[in-house]
Design goal:
This protein is mainly α. It is built from eleven helices and two strands. A two-stranded antiparallel sheet has the order 1-2. Strand 1 and strand 2 (219-220) form a beta hairpin. Helix 4 runs parallel beside helix 10. The protein starts with a helix and ends with a helix. The model has no long low-confidence stretch (mean pLDDT 82).
């Protein structure tokens, strides 16, 4: 199990640094499958598999998004003037999203995850502005739009454990950002969500999840360690490709990865 998690962490690291995913699109489906396979669907861990996967994925983002942000900062691909206004609002939204996830059943969270993925993919394909070559100059948002957008991003990202990439990348893309700039901004914007969301998962679920000594609420600490080591290796490997992938190919692969995860989540039981 932990060998697979190490490999999964490596893949999560690659997708974090190159696509801003934060690892959730890789970690959540795999962890749900592993927890059910190893512990059985009727065990405490099996019944709480979706909650454990989302909470552990959110905790992993603290590490992966921090390291990836540092890598992008060194390459000067992060436009901090656009990142800073969103940070506080995303943190507020993350608390609300994590609280909602704890109160919902795992099956509801899974179908919300599937629905949001499907909407994002269709919207990116049908509406102009995602797949074309962007100018690289990002149009800033007004204060009201920034606050509403930030809270919404934080809520959805923490609810699903996927980081902000699924919302921030299409948003920044349509406002003129290149894929490199859009994915670079997704990483620091995942940090407030990851910190607030993880704290909320741990605090709200600590008293009612008899899962074992190596759990902090719904966060599986052993799995988190294996994922973090793998993520560090993946980020080191993929950092050399920052800014080197042609823009249209970068956007197309982003949508392809979303589609693969959507299929996995639909067929997973």
């Amino acid at each position: 199990m932990y060998g697979l998690l190490l490999l999964c962490g490596g893949l999560a690291g690659v997708t974090t640094v190159l696509f801003g995913f934060g690892g959730g699109f890789v970690v959540v489906p795999l962890m749900v499958t592993l927890l059910i396979a190893v512990h059985g669907p009727d065990s405490a861990a099996g019944q709480a598999a979706m909650h454990i996967a989302v909470a552990t994925s959110t905790a992993l983002m603290i590490f992966a998004a921090s390291l990836s942000t540092w890598r992008h900062h060194r390459q000067r691909t992060v436009q901090w003037r656009l990142v800073r206004p969103l940070v506080g609002y995303i943190a507020i939204g993350a608390v609300l999203g994590a609280a909602a996830a704890v109160s919902l059943s795992g099956e509801w969270v899974r179908w919300i995850f599937i629905g949001y993925l499907a909407i994002t993919i269709v919207d990116a394909i049908l509406r102009p502005g995602f797949l074309h070559q962007a100018s690289g100059e990002v149009r800033p948002m007004g204060r009201l739009v920034t606050s509403v957008t930030g809270i919404f991003i934080g809520m959805v990202a923490a609810l699903l454990g996927v980081g902000g990439s699924v919302m921030t990348v299409p948003l920044m893309r349509r406002r003129g950002a290149s894929m490199t700039a859009a994915t670079a901004m997704a990483n620091p914007l995942s940090l407030p969500m990851a910190i607030s969301g993880t704290a909320t998962y741990v605090l709200l679920s600590a008293g009612d999840t008899p899962l074992g000594a190596w759990y902090a609420g719904y966060v599986d600490l052993c799995a988190l360690l294996a994922l973090a080591v793998g993520s560090w290796l993946g980020i080191r490997l993929a950092s050399r490709w920052i800014g080197r992938i042609p823009d249209r190919i970068h956007a197309g692969v982003y949508l392809l990865l979303l589609t693969v995860v959507l299929v996995v989540m639909v067929v997973m039981h």
